[in-house]
Specification:
Elements lengths: L5 H7 L3 E3 L2 E3 L7 E7 L2 E8 L5 E6 L3 E9 L2 E3 L12 E7 L4 E6 L5 E8 L1 H6 L1 H4 L3 H9 L5 E6 L2 H11 L5 H22 L14 H16 L7 H7 L4 H12 L3 H20 L3 H7 L5 H12 L9
Antiparallel strand pairs: 1-2, 3-4, 4-10, 5-9, 6-8, 6-10, 7-9, 8-11
Length: 311
């Protein structure tokens, strides 16, 4: 699996945009390096394309945290999930190089914040953090198999990410502002390793299982409101519900129930924001039988009621 911070990969090795066919450089894709010092780099993205953008990239050794405020991409690498969705945070470690592909969709603006920590940072700071458990676990993870963990974006990281996108207007404070946000994210990244196994087991799915579970995810993405039963979904793809749950978790690092719920809530939010539907209409269209359940889940997921999603 790849280092999940998409801008990192594109920043080191830009791919090509086939709609239109020009080189997707860091400048054209607005992958901005806002802070870089001693093996720690902070990037932000803020752009929207009128057409899908095909991106090819090369991963490289790093530990990173990728925060997706807005934007959507679909992975194009067989057996590997290179997609992303709004309000997600990814924590990844990689000690390998891999060629990955994805398509950035034009339906939403792309706003992300990424913190990259390179091996040289760990080497330089070893004497300082020698007895620090999160530090040692992050460093150890760099020598293990590639690992990716995804979870919903929490309020703390959302505030930090939005602060990166809204620096102070005083020029003399901008550098200090970005440096402080980089340290905030470095602290948050260390917290992610405080209670995890530094040597996660590598996934082991057959080629047939990978192909099938990718098809399951593609179906969910295309029918968020129609996915109401894991049992029926498993039957549709010729597998048991337990096998479906297990393979989905191994392949994508998240349980299938949470993934379906997340897609339905994001779909409902888009209906409110882009089509101006009422909360009740969006709830029913997103597959909820009761708008109250939609409103409760929406507030828990995004931190505000669905009525506040109207622009």
């Amino acid at each position: 699996m790849e280092c999940r911070c998409d801008a990192i990969c594109d920043w080191e090795n830009p791919g090509t945009a086939v709609h239109p066919p020009e080189t997707l450089s860091r400048k054209s894709a607005k992958y901005d390096v806002v802070f870089k010092e001693d093996g720690v780099t902070l990037l932000s993205t803020n752009f929207q394309s009128v057409e899908p953008i095909f991106v090819e990239a090369q991963t490289f050794p790093c530990v990173c945290m990728s925060i997706v405020l807005d934007g959507r991409a679909e992975g194009q690498t067989a057996g590997f999930d290179a997609s992303f969705s709004p309000n997600e945070v990814w924590v990844a470690t990689s000690n390998a190089r891999m060629h990955i592909q994805k398509v950035i969709m034009p339906d939403l603006p792309v706003r992300t914040v990424e913190l990259i920590v390179l091996p040289e940072w760990f080497e330089r700071n070893e004497p300082r953090f020698l007895k620090d458990r999160p530090f040692m676990r992050m460093w150890a993870a760099l020598n293990g198999p590639t690992s990716v963990r995804r979870r919903p974006l929490d309020a703390r990281l959302k505030r930090i990410a939005w602060a990166v996108h809204h620096p102070p207007r005083t020029d003399g404070l901008i550098e200090l502002h970005y440096q402080s946000r980089a340290l905030d994210l470095l602290s948050a990244l260390a917290d992610e390793f405080d209670h995890v196994d530094p040597k996660p087991k590598a996934p082991s799915l057959s080629a047939k299982s990978i192909e099938r579970i990718m098809a399951v995810r593609q179906w969910i993405d295309g029918n968020p409101s129609g996915t109401t039963s894991i049992v029926s979904l498993a039957s549709e793809f010729g597998m048991s519900p337990s096998k479906l749950r297990q393979d989905f978790c191994v392949a994508f690092g998240v349980c299938i129930g949470s993934y379906i719920s997340d897609r339905r809530l994001n779909y409902g939010r888009e209906l409110i924001q882009t089509m101006g539907l009422t909360v009740s209409e969006a709830a029913y269209r997103a597959g909820y039988a009761h708008p109250a359940n939609f409103a409760t889940a929406f507030k828990r997921r995004f931190g505000h009621p669905p009525s506040a999603a109207r622009s």
